[in-house]
Amino acid sequence: MDFGRLITAMVTPFDRAGEINWEATSRLVDYLIEEQKSEALVVCGTTGESPTLSDEEKLELFAYVLKKAAGRCKIIAGTGSNSTRHSIHLTQAAEKIGVDGVLLVVPYYNKPNQEGLYQHFAAIAGETSLPVILYNVPSRTSISMSTPTTLRLADIPNIVATKECLSVDQITQIVSACPADFRVYSGDDAAGLAALAVGGHGIISVASHVVGEQMAEMIQAYVSGDVRRAGALHRKLFPVFKGLFECPQPLPNPSAVKYALGLLGVDVGTVRLPLVPPSEEEAAFIAALL
């Protein structure tokens, strides 16, 4: 399964009552594929506010986005959690719907050791035929999956990729020793070009909601050998990469990108509690950023 080089971790549009806005979801899918050049969409990942979505909402979203995309891009379902049994259940339900793959986050809060992480992901992969993308994001999970654990998992046939958010150092280590067909994606927009330079395959992105077309151009410039142009595009986009997360002060994803989409005329509503929308100062910063 080739998920492409630019994958967008899609926001979940809500209406004023805080329910999923299906019309806005339809428009967003078209916009991300046609205007922002996403080659795949992660549905119900961190940026999709997965912790606040019920299983019923997630399954509805998987089915709706899959139908709307209609083969124009790959659909990756966020089915990971800190419960192995629950992750298996949701992964199998997503497989029945027909998604192209699943994204499984490192278990959060219960803090398993490296052997526990291996057994968790191996157990889920063993109960599905879908391609699996691992997701290491220690800033959110409080633990990090080590390079040796990732490499052990890469030997499982349907574990095909990882989204790595720890460091370019770890991306380098994984790429240096993983099977040739195992893909490594940067989960940090600002580190995307550096990840490509050390052998990463692409970026699973938040900023691609608003600068995806330029990011796709940057990636294409790099893989075609125009490193100077890729670097120039990265430098141009860097303030957006950093600003959507840092603002004047750190702002939880996806509060900033949802606000930014609204400024661009793509209304996706606001966030569900416990997240909150940008403050007046943050909103002004995001507007200036764009």
TrEMBL record:
SMART domains: DHDPS. Pathway: Amino-acid biosynthesis; L-lysine biosynthesis via DAP pathway; (S)-tetrahydrodipicolinate from L-aspartate: step 3/4. Its EC number is 4.3.3.7. Pyruvate binds at residues 47, 204. It catalyses: L-aspartate 4-semialdehyde + pyruvate = (2S,4S)-4-hydroxy-2,3,4,5-tetrahydrodipicolinate + H2O + H(+). The active site is at residues 135, 163. The record marks 46, 109 as: Part of a proton relay during catalysis. It is found in: Cytoplasm. It comes from the Bacteria. Keywords: Amino-acid biosynthesis, Cytoplasm, Diaminopimelate biosynthesis, Lyase, Lysine biosynthesis, Schiff base. It holds the Pfam family DHDPS. Catalyzes the condensation of (S)-aspartate-beta-semialdehyde [(S)-ASA] and pyruvate to 4-hydroxy-tetrahydrodipicolinate (HTPA). Belongs to the DapA family. HAMAP family: DapA. Homotetramer; dimer of dimers. This is 4-hydroxy-tetrahydrodipicolinate synthase. The gene is dapA.
